[in-house]
Amino acid sequence: MAIRWPLVIRRTHKWLALIVGVQVLLWTLTGFYMVAVHIDIIHGDDLVRPPVVAPIDLASFVPPARIVQSAPDASEIRLQRFMDQPVWRAQTPAGPRLFDAGSGQPIPDLSEAQIRAAARRIYSGTGDIVAARLLTTAPLEMQARKPPYWQVEFDAWNRPTLYLSPQTGELISRRHALWRVFDFAWMLHIMDYDDRSDVNNPLLRVATWSALAMALAGAWLLLWSFPRRRKKKA
Fold first, then answer.
1. Residue 148 class from Cβ within 10 Å (0-12 exposed, 13-18 middle, 19+ buried)?
2. Nearest alpha-carbon partner for 180 in 148, 129, 151, 142
3. Which residues cross the membrane (predicted)?
């Protein structure tokens, strides 16, 4: 019995469209969102103020060697500002530590009031702080970052949220509504519903090859549907 290839390919195309058609539509919609919204907006660059660079007089500060004595396991010592106060920042295996640049005394972990003040100085908007929480468990939007850190949320339509270091008050990351939509769209786009990071997972590969087969079958049916010239019989 001869195989009726047009019928086989038509049925293959139909079933593949039923199986992967929804995912192809999701690829289109999520891809459109990811190119329509500028990446700088997704990153939340407009949510934070640019850092203020001001000269620092080093004459009255304790030398870095004093800080090394207090934190001998530090891998890096650098001078920076915290709330307009010059501080030495020591990077240790347990995390960063701050020392008063004038006295060399360690600065304890920041209080909620200090974190709120630091977040207020970083945030470029005008909304008030609606919540400040010290997190020991990473939320879904911060799975790539190891806690603890402070989560400071502001009152605005896009729910801007800053994540700050409890030791230094430095900005770790920022999140907002458009970023969260992007993150959800990215999950649907790469079909990684757990970590949202594996762009070569088996589910995505199966869907991609199935979509390619559907497209090739559709192209073959399109070409086959055109009338063909038949050789005239002698």
1. middle
2. 142
3. 15-36, 206-226
